[in-house]
């Protein structure tokens, strides 16, 4: 069995008015919006993968599976983690999780899922899409 290389990250974000479902257009409530949670999960995967990339490489998101399980109010600190779970050539699949952080550390699971990224040559990628 091939061992998966180690790539992990943990980022913390504080929910602001700009992060709410009402602000991002995914609902009417002043709680963390799912699109923002997804962006935070992708940011965590980028933080995990970036140190493993060589000069000229970057990664692009290609697939997301995310469950938003619990609310986070404005002012709530949220920790988002990403852990490399699977590698196949240029493909990298990460397990992601977000938890509300309380006085005793990470607590309520806010969301969990998988984010898949593919490693690409940045210049070649941009050339392909520019015409």
Polypeptide structure, described:
By secondary structure, the chain is α+β, with helices and mostly antiparallel strands. Helices cover 21% and strands 46% of the residues. The protein is built from three helices and five strands. The protein has helices at 21-24, 34-49, 122-129; strands at 8-14, 57-68, 77-88, 91-102, 105-121. Strands 1-3-4-5-2 form a five-stranded antiparallel β-sheet. A hairpin with a 2-residue loop joins strand 3 and strand 4. The model has no long low-confidence stretch (mean pLDDT 95).
Layout of secondary structure:
Elements: E1 8-14, H1 21-24, H2 34-49, E2 57-68, E3 77-88, E4 91-102, E5 105-121, H3 122-129
Antiparallel strand pairs: 1-3, 2-5, 3-4, 4-5
Structural class: alpha+beta
* Mean pLDDT over the residues: 95
Overall geometric form:
globular
Radius of gyration: 16 Å
* Strand count: 5
Distance between the termini: 42 Å
* Content of β-strand: over 45%
Helix content: 10-25%
H/E series:
EHHEEEEH
Oligomer: single chain
Count of DSSP helices? 3
Describe the biggest sheet? 5 strands, antiparallel
List the strand order in the largest sheet. Answer: 1-3-4-5-2
- Any low-confidence stretches, pLDDT <50, length ≥5? none
């Amino acid at each position: 069995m091939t061992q998966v290389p180690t790539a992990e990250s943990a980022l913390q974000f504080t929910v602001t008015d700009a992060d709410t479902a009402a602000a991002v257009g995914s609902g009417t409530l002043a709680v963390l919006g799912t699109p923002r949670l997804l962006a935070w999960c992708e940011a965590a995967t980028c933080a995990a993968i970036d140190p493993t990339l060589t000069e000229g490489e970057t990664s692009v998101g290609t697939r997301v599976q995310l469950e938003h399980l619990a609310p986070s109010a404005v002012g709530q600190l949220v920790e988002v983690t990403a852990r490399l779970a699977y590698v196949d050539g240029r493909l990298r699949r990460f397990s992601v999780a977000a938890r509300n952080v309380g006085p005793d550390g990470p607590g309520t699971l806010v969301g969990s899922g998988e984010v898949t990224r593919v490693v690409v040559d940045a210049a070649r990628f941009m050339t392909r899409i520019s015409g």
